[in-house]
Design brief:
Elements lengths: L3 E7 L5 E8 L3 H13 L17 H12 L11 H18 L6 H15 L8 E4 L10 E2 L15 E2 L9 H6 L6 H7 L5 E2 L3 E4 L10 H7 L3 H8 L6 H5 L3 E5 L9 E6 L1
Antiparallel strand pairs: 1-2, 1-9, 2-8, 3-7, 4-6, 5-7, 5-8
Length: 264
Amino acid sequence: MKNNFKIIFYDKNNKEVDLDYQLHDSLVASKWFKKIKHLKNIPIDGIESELEDVNDLQKIYNELCLFAGIQSKIFSKVDQALLNDFHKLYEDLHDVLSKKENNSILYKFHHSIHYNEHGNIPENKKNITIGWGTKEGPLTEIFPCNTYYDQSLIKNNIYLPWAELGKKPLDYWKNKEPNDQLRINQLCRPHTTLRSKFFISCKDIIPKVLNFEFIKWFDQYKENWLTHHNILKWNELDEYSAPLLAIANHKEDITNLKFLKILI
């Protein structure tokens, strides 16, 4: 069938493993699949695909400052206040540096910020992420992705990740960002960017009830925020789920597999 495809992986013995998928019947999945047809023979981006080491924030920050032509500073500890400041620096530099050639350090810096926020410990890995970074170029489009969020994530199925220049509201609150409506509207983002990037879930995930303290805090700003972004609601599905793109026709344990290519 034309909407069936394979993803080829390497196992721990460098042996190829081919796994079958069927495209989900939805507009968001159809749009994603058209992008993948253009990119299937283009090498994936190591940073976007979470293959590069982004643990050393000081080193990556120094490299960013050198690339941006700004003065770096030495920090004694990595805490949330520093990470918030660095995220603001990333936002401020993005429009200029994203237009420069060989700008991968900008995105490595962004990934390092979130790595140090969330502590991506390998044994807690929830998915395999595949992205092409700036190589996807004009294939990125604005699309109301939140309306396609599924009720849960199913192991081995393929989903579209949230990929905005900002933070989800729950992360904004956890990161102790400013209690300011203008900043919330600016930095908190719904899922409106449809990229070629995707992830394969390594486990079943049922969205949990949102933290009561978060709900109480967000209620002060929610109505204005929803209106600002022209969306109708925001709940646990928007925080913890994602749009379904393709259904796995296999039951392989993909946890330790390495992506090789897509066959369409």
